[in-house]
Amino acid sequence: MRILCSACSQVVPTGTLGRCPACRGILQPDYPADVVRQLTGIEPGAGIDRYRALLPVSTELPTLGEGDTPLVASRRIGSALGLDHVYFKVEGCNPSGAFKDRGGVLVAALALEAGSTGVLTASSGNAAAAIAAYSAAAGLNCLIMLEPGSPPMKLRQALATGAQVLPVEGVFARGPDAIGDLILDVAARLNYYPAFVWAPVNPYILEGIKTISYEIAARLPGSPDVIVCPVGGGDLLTAQWRGYLELQRARAIDKLPRMIAVQSVSAPPLLKAFQAGADRVETLPQANSTISGINVPFSGDHALAVVRQSNGAVAGVSDEAVLAMQRRIGLQEGIWVEPASAAPIAALPQLLDRGDIRPDERIVCIMSGAGFKDTHLAEAEAATVGRRPPVSFDAAAIVAQVESNQIAN
């Protein structure tokens, strides 16, 4: 394995953090051809340690059973939209309830290899929960700098697994370079491993997340035509593209999918750059989305590059459309997802109208996290149910109540 710059191809020492020292490009691991060919013989299953030859660690991962999440064919929504083959990759079935577990398990292993006494990150919620869980599993300290106003459930997860949580004012508001510098500085002072899940700060964490691609290709089987993915900083999209490039090198797939990024129109840095035909993604003054998982004012240039390299696209959806689709997914598909997970499905109608997807294509929508992560959906209804007087222990009374509720609805 080599660590090289994705922009200028300069090779840097293994373990280098941050950007390329020569051109400020994003670093990434590169694996020998004989290692990549092993992908054709690896069976999917729980725990991503099976892919360790294609991960930047040599020690066993402190697995909690992450990975091998369900790939579920849409039962109703896809056909209702006029699409024949829509699939959902349900990452909420990971141990802490989000795709970030794939990065969290790798972070813990990297920290142990580096001789760190703990792990440090900044997070809007999902990364905090994942990294705290895997730090606990590995016996490491964990410090989370949390964005004020993050969903309480995500905060509870981090606290329940022993993390020290510090709300930091405007932790994401000063832009990606400032937060990267802060994390690296604090980590060096504490002998903690810097685990910010964003490639320009830590280029290795994406390697755990890319295993989503391996699993999708194994379960379909073969490559999907289109991946539709929620995007904040851009690592989820970029990591999957790395996985598909490796699958193509291994001749495990015969074509690459188009990568489609979906953002809230209230937090659209990648969308604006794509629409403007820009070479770089500019940091916005602020992000105002209520969709916590993708409410960040910056996206990485690596995500923009992936969209263009794959002949993909970027779509923007309103928060209202996302929340309505979150409810619809629960009612019509039986899957409770966090709002960010509903964004790709909310974007499907406009993608079809624009010609970015076709009715006969195999389309995989990435559901990034579980519904308990952001519990506003059905919160009021659940509280109301708890206050209602109970129905009598009588079949006729129960049936009468059911029928009256059906009439009311």
Structure write-up:
By secondary structure, the chain is α/β, with parallel strands linked by helices. It has a domain at about 70-95 and about 205-375: Rossmann fold. Helices cover about 40% and strands about 15% of the residues. It has 15 helices and 13 strands. The strands form 3 sheets. The chain has a 6-stranded mixed beta sheet, sandwiched between helices. A 4-stranded parallel beta sheet has the order 8-7-6-9, with helices on both faces. β6, α4 and β7 (about 140-145) form a beta-alpha-beta unit. The longest helix is centred in the last third of the chain and has 16 residues, at about 340-355. The model has no long low-confidence stretch (mean pLDDT about 90).
Indicate the radius of gyration in whole angstroms: 21 Å
Write down the CATH topology of the domain at 71-97 and 205-373: Rossmann fold
CATH class of the domain at 71-97 and 205-373: Alpha Beta
Q: N- to C-terminal separation?
A: 59 Å
Shape: globular
Q: How many alpha or pi helices?
A: 15
- What is the name of the CATH architecture of the domain at 71-97 and 205-373? 3-Layer(aba) Sandwich
Chain-averaged pLDDT: 92
What's the multimeric state?
single chain
Number of strands: 13
Strand content: 5-15%
Strand order of the largest sheet: 4-5-13-10-11-12
Q: Main sheet?
A: 6 strands, mixed
List low-pLDDT spans: none
Helicity level: 25-40%
Instruction: Write down the secondary-structure element order.
Output: EEEHEHEHEHEHEHEHHEHEHHEHHEHH
Helix and strand content put the structural class at alpha/beta
